Amino acid sequence: MTVPAPHAGAAPRVVLAEADIDRALTRIAHEILEANKGASDLVLLGIPRRGYPLAQRLARRIGAVDPSVDPRAITGQLDVTLYRDDLQRNPTRPPRATQLPPTGIDEKVVVLVDDVLYSGRTIRAALDALADLGRPRIVRLAVLVDRGHRELPIRADHVGKNLPTSSAERVRVHLEEIDTAGGRPVNEVVIEGGA
Amino acid sequence: MKHLLSTHDLALHDALRLLDTAEEMAAVGEREIKKLPALRGRTVVNLFYEDSTRTRISFEAAAKRLSADVINFAAKGSSVSKGESLKDTAQTLEAMSADAVVIRHPASGAPARLAASGWIDAAVLNAGDGTHEHPTQALLDAFTLRRHWAKVAGTGSPGSDLTGMRVLIVGDILHSRVARSNVWLLKTLGAEVTLVGPPTLLPVGVDTWPCTVRYNLDEALADRPDAVMMLRLQAERMNAAFFPSTREYSRRWGFDDARLAALDTLGLGDTVIMHPGPMNRGLEISAAAADSVRSTVLAQVRNGVSVRMAALYLLLAGGTHDHPAAPTVRENPALSPTKEPAV
Question: How far apart are CA A176 and CA B39, in angstroms?
């Protein structure tokens, strides 16, 4: 496994390899279908950056189980940059695109998809952003990794892996849609740093 | 980027960042709820020493859509007419803890003075200073041009520039801060700019600008430009005999019905006509040209709010911390980013 050279600190360790990510997403896709009793009214909204490719992967798996579903027609991207509560504590970040499926989100079952659930502040921002875009019937949350350390009363409905971490560590998700290492696409979850 | 004072020193990277951010702000303008909480609790002061309607209300709309508080300050009927200096006004605004000052001033360089003087801690946005610059107008023109250029090329506009686009800027270049800002910005974005006007309305030293200069509008149109930007004849600044009569000016440098028809004859189906407003209909632009499908006048006004939202957001939203360390894994250039979901 090619792992990029770390900066000073503990060596990064891989906690989910490509096959683990695949299995977790397949399970989440089935959980979503089970919780929703089918694929009707489902909309998957990925939170940039890495939530969006995950939402696409989940939609493809849902489409494989239920052939009446067009994965592209139920997937969208929800940018939360302009709703964050930490804008003033960080350097300015340019917003990314928000694109909803053509059906919109009113009266839909919206599943927010993100890579790592940590403080919960991103999800709070996402809920505010959703309220400005429409009124879903139900909002659920699916994440690949839940690393704990919540700062808000927010909980995921579907979790790929619960990962106990120290807050000094960093959890990085690398997806081939976005990341490369040594020129090759990678799919993995690694933990860096820490004591 | 702490201030937005001119396009002359605006790097390509920053210009594209502004235009890309404006693209997302434009999407907000199409929603039912056109409001974002990004600048909640921030105060934006519109400090206008010169008359303006569209720029002021455009900045006001932009600030309000980002949830900032807006204070409008017009020099007329204020303590400025009692003789208050720019410094004292600035320090008054500082005492009221303004986070951004949008300033229009008849003296070239007033915004730069305000930004560099240390009188005030706020971000300064130039909304037009004398005959120097009007950067947000140039940015909204570039935004309008970029959307058009991307549509013609059949691609998406985020991230793209204006490479290869040929733009005519026609009219009173001498008094126009819009022309100056556009020359620098469009050049930075890769467009080829040609200025057209009577020699008396071209400034001294125009030969050192990164553009071509011509005197005959019909010849310039025959060279198949992709966009024609008409400038307003600034009657309030016409303190000398720059041309014999407005009728002669209109005949030679106005965009009249005959020139509108000429665009069709030349087969220039994709050439757009721009005007920063306010228009003198029948003088520099005919009513038919202003209302034609080629006219981008109203799109420019709409885009103005988006571009100003982007400028206010990028200058005001963030803290002053350093950029975080570069990520250890580089982004994969071979695969399409998540910027434009294929939904």
Answer: 35
